[in-house]
Amino acid sequence: MASLSDVVDIPSNLNVGLTACPASHLLQKFGSPGSLTPKCSPFTGPSKNLIRTDSVGPFRVTGMGFAIDSLSDVFDQVNSFHPEVYAAIHTAGMLCVRANKASTSAYSNHSWGCAIDLYFGSDVVPFGAPKTQLGFLYIYEFFRQAGWYWGAGFSGKKDAMHFELSREAIDSVAIAPSPGAELVAAADYARQMGYDDVEEPA
What we know:
By secondary structure, the chain is of the alpha+beta class.
C-alpha cells in the first residue's frame, strides 16, 4: 500500500502562471531581514511588525502575517478535500534568516517568513534531488491557486519540500507605511534649525 512519504517523480507543468520570487525583490520590498548567516539568525529588519506566530491548522509557524493567513486558507482546502493528507503534513520551518542553500551570497526567502518547508513521514527528499514525496501530489495545486510557487519546479536544483510566495503574490501585498514622525514643512524645519538666521552670501 502506497505511503504519503513514498518518493515519486516530480510532475510536469508546475507553477503555471507563477514566477519564483527572487530574494532581491523581497529585500527591496521589506528591507534587510537581519544578518546573512549560514544558519538561522534573529529577524531584526524594519518589517518586524509584520512577523507573527500562529496556527495554520496542522501546526504553528512564524512568518509574515499575510503568508500565515494564506497558508491557513490553503490547509483549510487540503483538509476539506484530503483530510488524511492534512493530518500527515509536517513542517521543517518557515521563518529562518539565513543564506540560500544554492547561493551563500544571497538570502533565502525563508529569511522574511515568506516560504515554508514541508514533508511527510520521518524523512525528507534531499535538496537538489529531482524527486518528491507522494503527499505533495495531493496538495501542490492548492498552493499554486493561492499564489505559492513550488520549489520542485525550480529550473536549477530542485527543492521539493519548499513552497514560497510567488512574485505575483508578493507584488499584490499592500504594505502600510512604517510609523514615524509627521512631516514638517520645510520652511518650519529651516526656522527650527536656525538656518533662516544664516546670512545669504552677497
